[in-house]
Amino acid sequence: MKILPEKLPLSSGGILLGALAVGALIINDAPIGLLDEIHTLGEYGERSLRWRIAMPRPEAGWELAMLIGIIFGAGIYALLSGGFKREIFYAESGTSSLVGRTFGSAWRGILGGALVMVGIRLSGDSVWGHLAGAIQLGTGSWLFLIALVVGGVFTALLMQSSGNSAPAAKTAAPAKKRGARK
Amino acid sequence: MILLGALSSDWKIIIGAFGGVLLGALLAAAGLTDRERVKAALKLQDRALVNTVLVLLLTGLVLRYWAVRLDWLSAAALIEPARLGSVLFGGLLVGIGLNLAGVTPLSALGALGGGRFSALWALIGMALAFPLLDFGGEKLDDFLARWDYRLGTGRFTAEFFSSANPALYATIALAVLIAILAFGGKKN
């Protein structure tokens, strides 16, 4: 089923996301980063598993509803645009054995996810929250976004030059073609 | 303006769920839940995704300006207080992590909804960060509270809107640059 386009034309996704961020600011009078809810869920899981004690369940509030809504929203869009893609392993984890692909995906995902969460905790808000903060001209949010780009681009180029992400470079085919035409 | 805080908890949950569905759909439509595209953007190979984020910021700045001018939004709306070292180090860590995992907490949920179960690896990593934070988080907070430089929160003031403010011209120049980047030339 393909009712919606898989990719929105031009940068209209940015326009709609910007409007949504400001709409959220208007109704909440503060950026909606959802970091508090993510922390509550993370700490609930961690303490329940680590100390094996029955922790009081996190309250079912609007923030939890929003987190669950994100899963459904993206799922609905993917189904309606024909972009639903079942993927268990990362592309760059290779096509070797199941164990190799599992290990290749697991270390990248787990290490990357942990770094993202520690970085978010240090900087005081999620990436979405910092985008909303940057819209409000928050100095910290702009510095966070600049540091994110510097850190991300530097690591990506470093990994590319060391050949670590060679299979993933296949995704960059359009850029290479463009260069070849010149 | 209607503030979320003034609504009953049932309405808050309904609005939260609706907002989440909208955010999830837009994140998927903009390609921000696609790990390969995020990684390609970090390698400076997917210009469309970079444009989307720049247009998001530009649209947000313009709409926020008008929301304040029309009194829909308080100029003093809360901005999370930040510290220089924390945001810089945190941003670097998120950048490095994003390059490996390709998702942030919210986009990981969106990716999961779109069938990319590989986002579970990143979500497991995010969950595993909590014991680490639980172990050293408090000491780190104390250290940062003592030594880190506290940043201003930034406000739209009357001076900002004055024609004597060079930032206004810089903003216009930036807007033109983003428009050229976003809508000019070939798209990926």
Q: How would you describe what is shown here?
A:
The complex is a heterodimer of chains A (182) and B (188). Chain A is mainly α and 182 residues long. Chain A has helices spanning 12-28, 35-51, 62-81, 98-123, 127-135, 139-161, 173-181. The relative contact order of chain A is 0.10. By secondary structure, chain B is an all-alpha fold. Chain B contains seven helices and no strands. Chain B has helices at 9-30, 35-42, 47-69, 84-101, 105-113, 119-147, 166-183. In chain B, helix 2 crosses helix 4 (84-101) and helix 3 packs across helix 7. The model of chain B has no long low-confidence stretch (mean pLDDT 79). The chains are: A mainly alpha (182), B mainly alpha (188). At the A-B interface, helix 1, helix 2, helix 3, helix 4 and helix 5 of A face helix 1, helix 2, helix 3, helix 4 and helix 5 of B.
Short description:
Chain A has 182 residues and is mainly alpha-helical.
Draw up the topology in text.
The complex is a heterodimer of chains A (182) and B (188).
Chain A: H1 12-28, H2 35-51, H3 62-81, H4 98-123, H5 127-135, H6 139-161, H7 173-181
Chain B: H1 9-30, H2 35-42, H3 47-69, H4 84-101, H5 105-113, H6 119-147, H7 166-183
Helix pairs in contact in B: 1-5, 2-4, 3-7, 5-6
